[in-house]
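Honest question from a wet-lab person: if I give you the sequences of every part of a complex, can you actually get the arrangement of the whole thing, not just the pieces? Trying it with mine:
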Amino acid sequence: MVGVVGEDFPKEYVELFRSKNVDVEGLKTEAGKTFAWHGEYELNMNNRRTLSVELNVFETFQPELPASYRSTPYVLLANIAPSLQSHVLSQIESPRFIIADTMDLWIQIANEDLRKLIKQVDMLILNDSEARDFTGQDNVIRAGHEILKMGPRYVVIKKGEHGAILFGQEGYFLAPAFPLDDVKDPTGAGDCFAGGLIGTLAAENRHDFDTLKKAVIHGTVVASFNVEAFSMGKLKAINSEQIAGRTGKMREYASF
Amino acid sequence: MVGVVGEDFPKEYVELFRSKNVDVEGLKTEAGKTFAWHGEYELNMNNRRTLSVELNVFETFQPELPASYRSTPYVLLANIAPSLQSHVLSQIESPRFIIADTMDLWIQIANEDLRKLIKQVDMLILNDSEARDFTGQDNVIRAGHEILKMGPRYVVIKKGEHGAILFGQEGYFLAPAFPLDDVKDPTGAGDCFAGGLIGTLAAENRHDFDTLKKAVIHGTVVASFNVEAFSMGKLKAINSEQIAGRTGKMREYASF
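Yes, you can. This is the full assembly:
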């Protein structure tokens, strides 16, 4: 984990990461306040509107990797400005598999940087409306193929409650979402998805298409817990047995 | 097949059905014009707007089943007024599995009739926006469970390009749509889906949950061909090998 928080950031969250064996050496605390976002979701939970963004300590953040991070083989470039994602990537010695996440903002204000970045990554993750914006294609399948032509070997288009589609030379993987009858808050679902995905590749130390499918399902399951409560409410309470339980359910619900 | 057309209906379509071994004894031709619908689809191909409906010979149609139809074990009550669907059903001697299709119009103007009908059927098929309207639930998973409580043993909620969800006491089946990069016209996709579904049950002469899953996939594949051209353009040209080919692809794209 590489990131920055302000002095107001609750210590208990850093402790939570430590208790889950997350290496927080790359997490800096700077004078000032933590980045904050406020938004509103529509009833369908897929569309959201930003009400306010305060960059705070994030405004001048230049991610520098601790020496121990530089040999990391599996890299997730989480959603920040593409130029910063490139800066992080340049510090990694010999990455084996690189995933970049992005969002509508960078498609609009840093399109060239984003196009440069994705030539260097193995997988781009974005949601369906972003894929449409990025390519100008209304058809999501066509949008996925167009992004593949821009450089990355794989593309994952997320569709919220409708699941996700993995695109590659090997074909497609059409992953459903885990069925939930009570979605409380989708904030952070995309981060859980991408984190669960790269986590599977790192744990298995492989990135063939079958492992990528497994990784997409794992990301889906982690995200499904996240959306059931506000903040870390549900996520901090779950264990690997519960994740395995939902993964088994996914297999049951998707097989024929 | 039970239905009515006007004198303007092209004979070649009736011959097409005959050439595919569809029994057209129940298809009547009456003096006047055939039912006609004109509509417009939004870019996402999921939302449509009716521009005009002419009932024509359909206005006074009372479906009467030929004697040879009355012992049919597998029944699809295609999308007409629920009172007419009930009238058809009352003529079947000992149905083994009954599916009813419906649409937003009947949910709005014949809600009580529809609620009565679905107590007598094994499965209701409707799309996601209709399921929301019918139950008042924004969450599709919750909507499916509410409809199950109204009587049918199974519910299928169709989500267009996002696939379909089968609900039953046995759990869920989360079926993806077949990935297409060029959708020409979704008109009739729902009928193809429901027809393909009941066709599988009739061909296999069983309706356990695994067969229902297979049937949902078959309906999905048939519908995928239909949307690739206007009218019967693609549908009349395909054969069972092409259907089997896409079914195999579906299995490949959905398995993990």
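Two things worth pointing out. The beta strands of chain B are 2-6, 26-30, 36-41, 48-54, 74-77, 97-101, 123-127, 154-158, 164-168, 171-175. Chain B is about 40% helix and 20% strand.
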